[in-house]
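Quick one, T. Sequence first:
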Amino acid sequence: MDSTPGWPAELVDGPVTLRGLRSRDGAAWVRVRRQNIDWLLPWEASAPGAPARVPTSMATFIVMWRRLRHEGRHGRCLPFAIFYQGEFVGQLTVGGVTRGSLQGAHLGYWIDRRVAGRGIMPTAVALATDHAFWSVGLHRVEVNIRPENVASRRVVEKLGFREEGLRRAFLHIGGEWRDHLSFALTADEVPAGLLSRWHRMQRQR
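Structure tokens:
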């Protein structure tokens, strides 16, 4: 039995759908990753001492999927696949779920370059954040982004995440220890929901 409230889940807003990553998503995951190697490489997590690379094999997907499924079942993450108009276009993981006095988690995400800039990722982040607050019961959601990653920063800036400061040599990304900017929201900052705020901002353009 899943021990995480609100998991598994399927979240939908217009043409954007988030649902739990499944084994049958492997072929699409491999295809999209192979088409986006140059796009993803500068931001891909890496292991110290190993060359920077973008994992694209089915074997890698299976290992990752099994690990994420295990973590999801034990309440430590929510591993979502992102679909746009029914097509797999990326991933979003609510990871590092911590209960107790923190009640927090962090978000990580990537998207197919072909559909970047269409509002898909802000919608996905808003859906996942609202779900984390109101269904999973978390208090705080955090996103850590390399300062150079303008596209990813734009997502959280559009949504109104607070910038909290610079974390020096925070994560091993692209073959080096990289500084990250930390952005966060708490549930009481968006009482009407982050998705509704995102929709309101879009209407005001």
